[in-house]
Design a protein that fits this description.
It contains 20 helices and 15 strands. The chain is an alpha+beta fold. It folds into 4 domains: 121 residues, no CATH class; 177 residues, Nucleotidyltransferase, domain 5 (2-Layer Sandwich); 76 residues, no CATH class; 99 residues, no CATH class. Strands 1, 2, 3, 4, 5 and 8 form a 6-stranded mixed beta sheet that branches. β3 and β4 form a beta hairpin. The longest helix has 18 residues.
Length: 545
């Protein structure tokens, strides 16, 4: 009997639940593109339903519509999620169905027979419902209710694994130590463990923390070690992977963990809370690793992670090559002979861990800011809020879950740089609220030093639009302090910096040591107003008495 870890997905339900920072599908909207992609990867309807948190009947509807319209993933690849949904379901309808429920006590007895599986019993149940005129529940609901039945009566569901079907992962409860030679401090080292249940072939990686990014990197390294992936990934309910696993309702995965699974086209199936039997293979491997790795290295002192990783890898090789006591062969031998070739190939493009940032406002210069650098957006989105997807190499900008711009990310050491695509700017930028001449005129009204500061901002830019936001931030300081104070601050700054920016000028204006200097400048500015224009302005020298 092949055991299936169950995600709660009710037949007929079309809604999908994410974390608070994940882009969402609307209620009763099926992720058509992902369903079709998973179908072409060989996933069953049942597996897609559990992976994408939609009802199995909804998945069947997508399959049926794809066949009717003769569409493949390649045909809809370029479409957005909304466009694909509209293409498949121009008119959605909803119906209620009454089901004939199975007798799970009989199901449990039948499963004790040789070769009898849940899939076979479900099919027989479906056929019986057809004969009697009843309506059968879907395979997902059938398995879910059977699992609840054996949990209720504390019955044992024996497991027989198939090759290359699942990987089980967990953190080892036992830890190791690493000596920091500079401080003499002993640091805790955690062990990530992954196991293929059929061959028991195991992967172990030492880490200095159990954070989300480390968890994801360990998975990527494990897939490389195995040379492929499986259909299922069974994990524990740790917060770096699973946000919520209620007794009833849908499982909510960490958004980055779910993105990892989508990249490798895998179904993440967290074990039920306090159900170690559902990931018995990795639980057993964790116990054996405590002896084969941790205990074997207990008398050795490591001062670098490189040395420790090398020692762990050597012990792991010995562990995998050691013959079984109650089974012929070894983990390495069974993996190489019966499981390795059945693994799913790794994607051509490696997965990149992404950080999502939400609610960034597009500024007047058609740019958003990230880590003190600026990236352009199409001008139609000025003053709108967008979301950023940031990887090690790229920054993508999304508006309402649709990607509107992609930029190569500036390195972390670079600041105040602009990545601007000319097509993102309107043909006549003065359609917007500001232009360079208006900003220069405003600066000239404040004073010559302020004018020079704004001039120098524009003189070093390839596109004048890149200087709009920087200039506005400086000129707006005259509203918070005074025109005289800003003029004096610009004079002080120009003596030390060729092209001062907001940060330097604001520091001068808010520094208490400059209060007296700025007050004198403001008084001098006020006293000079009466005669700067001259007598001719007020009627000429002949009328001046």
């Amino acid at each position: 009997l092949q055991w299936v870890v169950l995600c709660s997905a009710f037949t007929g339900s079309n809604h999908r639940i994410y974390g608070s920072h994940q882009p969402q599908y609307s209620a009763r909207k099926i992720p058509v593109k992902l369903v079709i992609q998973y179908r072409e990867q060989g996933f069953s309807r049942n597996m897609i339903a559990k992976t994408q948190k939609v009802g199995r009947s909804s998945v069947s509807d997508v399959f049926k519509r794809a066949d009717e319209l003769n569409l493949s993933y390649e045909d809809i690849k370029a479409l957005s999620d909304n466009e694909a949904y509209r293409l498949f379901f121009p008119e959605r309808y909803q119906s209620e169905v009454l089901y004939t429920l199975p007798e799970y006590d009989k199901v449990h007895k039948e499963l004790q027979g040789v070769g009898v599986t849940l899939k076979l019993l479900w099919q027989e149940y479906v056929d019986e419902c057809k004969d009697t005129g009843g309506i059968a529940v879907g395979y997902t609901k059938f398995c879910e209710d059977y699992q609840k039945y054996i949990d209720q009566y504390r019955l044992t569901n024996h497991l027989t694994h198939k090759p290359a079907v699942s990987i089980q992962v967990d953190w080892s409860g036992s830890t190791m130590q690493l000596l920091d030679p500079s401080t003499g401090e002993l640091r805790t080292v955690y062990l990530f463990v992954g196991t293929l249940p059929y061959s028991q072939y195991t992967y172990v990686e030492p880490t200095l923390d159990m954070k989300s990014n480390t968890w994801l990197h360990c998975h990527m390294n494990m897939f490389t070690f195995f040379g492929g992936t499986t259909v299922r990934l069974i994990c524990d309910n740790l917060k770096t992977g699973v946000i919520s696993h209620p007794k009833e309702g849908d499982i909510v995965l960490n958004e980055q963990y779910e993105a990892l699974a989508n990249h490798y086209v895998m179904a993440i199936m967290p074990a039920q809370v306090r159900k170690p039997k559902q990931k018995a293979a990795v639980e057993g491997a964790v116990g054996k690793i405590a002896t084969a790795v941790i205990a074997s290295l207990r008398n050795e002192l490591f001062t670098s992670m490189g040395e420790l990783k090398l020692a762990v890898r050597e012990k792991l090789m010995v562990f995998n090559e050691t013959p079984f006591q109650k089974r012929e062969g070894s983990r390495q031998l069974i993996f190489a002979e019966t499981e390795q070739d059945k693994l799913r190939p790794l994607p051509a493009v490696p997965y990149e861990i992404a950080e999502w940032i939400y609610g960034r406002k597009v500024k007047l210069d058609c740019h958003i800011s990230y880590q003190k650098n600026h990236y352009s957006c199409p001008y139609q989105y000025v003053k709108k809020k967008v979301d950023l997807k940031v990887t090690n190499n790229f920054l993508e900008i999304y508006y309402q879950n649709e990607r509107i711009a992609t930029h190569k990310r500036f390195p972390q050491y670079k600041e105040y740089a602009f990545s601007t695509s000319p097509e993102h700017l309107p043909e006549q930028f003065n359609q917007l609220e500001w232009n360079d001449q208006r900003l220069l005129n405003w600066a000239l009204q404040i004073g010559p030093f302020t004018h020079k500061v704004i001039q120098r901002i524009f003189e070093n830019l390839l596109l004048k639009e890149q200087g709009y936001q920087s200039s506005l931030s400086i000129l707006n300081l005259s509203k918070k302090h005074s025109t005289a104070a800003l003029e004096k601050a610009c004079q002080i700054a120009l003596e030390k910096i060729h092209s001062p920016r907001y940060r330097q000028l604001n520091a001068i204006l808010t520094n208490p040591t400059n209060n007296e200097t700025l007050e004198k400048a403001e008084n001098a500015y006020t006293e000079s107003i009466g005669f700067v224009r001259g007598a001719d302005y007020y009627g000429g020298n002949q009328n001046d008495k």
